[in-house]
Structure formats: C-alpha cells, structure tokens
Request: fold
Amino acid sequence: DTAVSQTPKYLVTQMGNDKSIKCEQNLGHDTMYWYKQDSKKFLKIMFSYNNKELIINETVPNRFSPKSPDKAHLNLHINSLELGDSAVYFCASSTPQGAAAFFGQGTRLTVV
Amino acid sequence: QKEVEQDPGPLSVPEGAIVSLNCTYSNSAFQYFMWYRQYSRKGPELLMYTYSSGNKEDGRFTAQVDKSSKYISLFIRDSQPSDSATYLCAMTLIGGYQKVTFGIGTKLQVIP
Reply:
C-alpha cells in the first residue's frame, strides 16, 4: 500500500491552462506539504498544512492554490500555467512532531 | 550565501568504498538534521534523522552533526551499486511543520 500517492504522475499541458494535482496519504499524519523540484534538482517547500489549516506559504504566486478537504488529502490547483512552472511537484506528509517527511513519487509537469 | 551548501558532485566511488557526504549551513538555529536518498525519477526517501549534535548509526549508514562547525556528514560503509542515487541533506529549526531547508543534493555513483 502506497503511503503517499500523487496523481497524475506525468502532466503535459499548454501555457495558460489550469490543472490540478491530487495527493493522498494513508499514514495518519496531520501535516502535509507541497514541494517543487526544479530542473537543477533543487527541492523547495511551497506549502504546508496541519490538520487542514495552512501553516506555510513560501511566497508562491497566487496562481497556485492548495486545498485540503481533509487531513489525508492535499491537492494543488494551478491557474494560468506558465513555462516556468515546469518542474516535478512532490507531496509529502509528516507528524507535527517530526520534521522528517515521507514523499510521494512526484508529478512531472511540463508546460509547452 | 545559501542557507545550506552541498556539493552536487557527481561523486564516483568503487564498490566497497566508504563514502563521505557533507553539508554546511549558515543558520545556527537549525536543530533537526535529515538525510534523504533520491533515486532517479523517484521521490526522496528518508534515510537518517538526528537531533542536535552527535552521531547516529543505522546499518551501513552513519550520520554526524557538528553544530559548532555547522557541518553535517553522512557516511556509507561498504558502498553498493544500489546506493547510486542523489543524497540530499535537510534541516529545520524545530520539529513539525516548520520549513525544511534542503541542500541541492550530491549525486553518487558506486561502480561495480
């Protein structure tokens, strides 16, 4: 059973489109995250949610909107996609007491 | 200056060698230190998690933290071809959903 699962795994879309990435964790964790890994492989936090409440928003453009319907799910919606949004997006989860996170397999987004 | 500095490599070693991977950091308030392993096109996987200064051993892996020097290390003994991956150091101010800051990762290749 996959601990943190994301869909889709690959996403190719045109500039200006709106797309969503879904994430689910079955670890019972209260805290979930979205990370972005750019072409240089640098991994940077975008958002974190604790028990459905937004905790961290790392100066991400407001075209990116996370939504947490419950503590096991954290989705990422992106409006008006730009070429620079092309990257791998990782969902992760952890307990509030533990900074160490469990990552999903990633969603490789390509904007053309 | 980046908060966390890590040599991206690549680092090539023969099978059986002892591998030393390192990170330096600038923020003396970092308290939790992690090492992740990331295989190509996969999500990061937590390897080691330590709090404050000291050593921690798990099988062939040893993590060291020297807070006085702001320097952390990961040692891999008896390296195997299956250890070939990118190793990312990460650290955070306190446990939980506080922002985790990653190094850029060191690409390791273990040659049979």
Observations:
- Chain A touches chain B at residues 4, 31, 33, 40-45, 48-50, 55-56, 58, 90, 92, 94-106, 108 (CB under 8 Å).
- Chain A has a mean pLDDT of 91.
